[in-house]
Amino acid sequence: MVSSPMYDRLMTFAAQADFNAELQSWDSDHKRVIDGFDQAIERVRHFQEHQGFTGKTGEALKAWADQTVARLEAKRSYYMGGIARYVAARQAIAQAAADARRLSPTLIDSKTAAMRDAAKVALPYTPAIGVVTGAVTGVVANTVLSAGSAYVDAVEAQANAMREAAATEILERLNGGLNELSAGVNTLTQTGVKVGAGYQNIHLPIPEQTQENLNRGYVQYSSYDSGIYGRSAADDYGRAALRSDKSLYPDGYADPETDEFARRRALASQQVSKRYLPPDVDGSYDRPITNAQDLMGMDLLHTRVDANHHRNGVVWGGHVPANPTDIDHPLWRINGGPATDSGSAGRLAGIGALGAGALGLRGAARMGTGSLGGSGASALTAGTYSGKGLGTYSAPSQAGAGSGAGNGVSGTTASPGAARASAVQSGGSGAGRGAFMGSGMGAGAGGSKEDKKAKRRKYQAYRYLDDDPDALPEGYVNPMSQTYGSDKDLAPAKREDDGWDPRQW
Questions:
Q1: pLDDT of residue 351
Q2: C-alpha triplet 174, 175, 180: angle, nearest 5°
Q3: Residue 351 CB partners (closer than 8 Å, separation 6+)
Q4: 308 strand-pairing partners
Q5: CA-CA distance, 259 to 265, in Å (whole number)?
Q6: For residues 1 and 353, is the Cβ–Cβ distance under 8 A?
Q7: How far apart are CA 479 and CA 133, in angstroms?
Q8: What is the pLDDT of residues 318-373, one digit of tens each?
Q9: Which one, of 368, 467, 275, lies nearest residue 3 by Cα?
Q10: How confident is the model at residue 310, as a pLDDT?
Q11: How far from chain centre, in Å, is Cα 453?
């Protein structure tokens, strides 16, 4: 399964960022500060105009008033430089939290998850697939076949790598902006108030409209202004233009609600025949790829599989996984929404078969005992995503790629192994005993309460009898060893010896 430490860290931040809204209760204090400066300056000006002295005394009072106003304006500018960075930080935190919530908590969609049971998935031929290291001599192939389980595991690993890259990018973008604001505050503090300098044109890291509101005493900012964060809700934080970008989806993706014209164009042109690899090559019709690691060289999240290519260039049908970094991507709707049984399991990293009790049978099958090869399966190593919309995929290093793991493999680790699971699974059984067919699973001496429950509800093919206080009488014949089938063909157990009593071996 997958490990998502950066996503977990980001969502922890997003949850804590909600407390940022509580700062609004102090926004009215800013209005009082601005009103205080304005009233103080107004009163000094009023005194200057109506002080009533003339001559040297009048000139001295006028000069004193000008100096006082300049000092107040300098302090006001100094305060505005601090409050503007405070507001910019609040805006960046709110935007980063909103950007984080655009990431999908579920790695794969329902349609992708359903393909796990597919016998074959047709992928476009490319040397980037691990087992197809180059062109096959004398063969022109355009299709590589993979088992559905391997395809889904590879998609999940790459989706996790993409989401981890997106989470890391959001955190780095936020930290970079906040560090810039912090440096500005430090510079402002070190410079201090220039006494008598009057109004200072301090560069403020906020939009002009927000600055005008602050000058009037109102703390207002909009998520549609990019601000110090560099992204805004105006384009869904950089996602809107990428949802149908041909550079990311060269073959596009089928939308049943709006793709009627493409369907008619496809029917008007002859379909390009699928040409497979030779039978003795992995990825051929007779030998589909079963190792998910062999698919890591291809960007599966933007590749259309099981599609029909037509001679007029139209690609019809097929499937493209939903984007894990864009919860509002149309593919989530097209593919039936998030997978129902992978949302929580995909986040339980490194547990292996220990997750069986909490996840049930289907969940446990995803946790190191299913299509990845069972307990102790090698870890999947996905490549990294970067570039525009994190749509540029870099395959993992080939060092150790044959086994799907190994030290020195670059990229994001997608599934820690479950090597500890076997020890846990076997920890309850005894040793050095005889055997008895059809018993419950023994918990051993000093077994836990859960082990005792398992003894009552789990079936074991045999049990050891020597020194077992629960051993059954000699000559017992287990009915389960002789009765099978449906309720219509069950028959009483035969009283003859069937060889299952170990004392008769």
A1: 31
A2: 100
A3: 1, 367, 368, 418
A4: 316
A5: 10
A6: no
A7: 55
A8: 899 999 999 999 999 999 999 986 443 444 333 332 233 333 333 333 333 333 33
A9: 368
A10: 83
A11: 36
